[in-house]
Amino acid sequence: MCEHLPGRGGLLCLPPYPHKLYLSLLFQGVQEVLKQEEPCSFVLVQHGGGGADVARTLALEAPQHTVCVVDVPPGHPQIVDWVLAEIRTAHGYSEAVYDAQGKRSVPVLQLFPLTVENQDPLSLGPTDVLLVTGGGKGIAAECALSLAIETGVRLALLGRSHPSSDQELADNLKRFSTSEIIFHYISADVTNPEQVQRAIGEIEQTLGPVTALLHGAGTNTPRLLNALTEKDFLQTISTKVESLPARER
């Protein structure tokens, strides 16, 4: 593909739902770009997401390089044509998404208005069980608390911390109890299949079948890309893209 294009750079194609091998290649590709003193291009081809967040970060930390993300339906006969067209016009950071009919769209970040007028009621209710990963602390805990108060949904909270050794977690669980919310907290690592299986079994025995999911698990150790080791990178990414492996996505 590169023989048709001017300039220098690299292209990485991720499969749908990339596992650690491909995430390692993504990390290595980003690190190679960061080593380049002269401007170059980094092209990421993906199928339904998987690496665009990393590419956006690269564009912010290394604005002298061109970063191009193309999201295409897997196996489509026009993939090469679409990717080549995007590369030829790429400048700075660009991102395009193609559907199976070849319709092109560009993702745009914008503020979502917080309005309650004409808002459809939430479909959750007291008969539902909401599984909340990372649900003991931070944003996930606050969202879960708000949802439970508003809808009466029962909460299955998963987190790696233990209330006996984490005061913030213990205080949050007291808030859930004070609010008279039906909940159950389990300490489990969402990237560990056996722990997730055991946790879901315990949840179903205690609260009933899980009917909804709020995926809030993550790690918060901010660092620049060039300061990350591959282990750091995989630990951060895998929590989001390789977690909850015990059940089908």
Q: Tags for this entry?
A:
single chain; 7 helices; 249 residues; alpha/beta
Question: How does this model look, in words?
Answer:
With 249 residues, this protein is of the alpha/beta class. The protein has two domains: 2-108, no CATH class; 129-215, NAD(P)-binding Rossmann-like Domain (Rossmann fold), CATH 3.40.50.720. Helices cover 36% and strands 18% of the residues. It has helices at residues 20-35, 52-61, 79-89, 138-151, 167-178, 193-206, 230-241, and strands at 9-13, 41-46, 66-71, 93-98, 104-105, 129-133, 154-159, 183-187, 212-215. The strands form two sheets. Strands 1-2-3-4-5 form a five-stranded mixed beta sheet, with helices on both faces. A four-stranded parallel beta sheet has the order 8-7-6-9, with helices on both faces. β4 (93-98) and β5 form a beta hairpin. α1 packs across α7 (230-241). The radius of gyration is 21 Å and the shape is elongated. The two termini are 33 Å apart. The model has no long low-confidence stretch (mean pLDDT 88).
The structural class is alpha/beta
Average pLDDT across residues?
88
Fraction in helix: 25-40%
For the largest beta sheet, what order do the strands appear in spatially? 1-2-3-4-5
Give the amount of beta strand, in percent: 15-25%
Q: Write down the Rg.
A: 21 Å
Low-confidence stretches: none
Largest sheet descriptor? 5 strands, mixed
C-alpha geometry: elongated
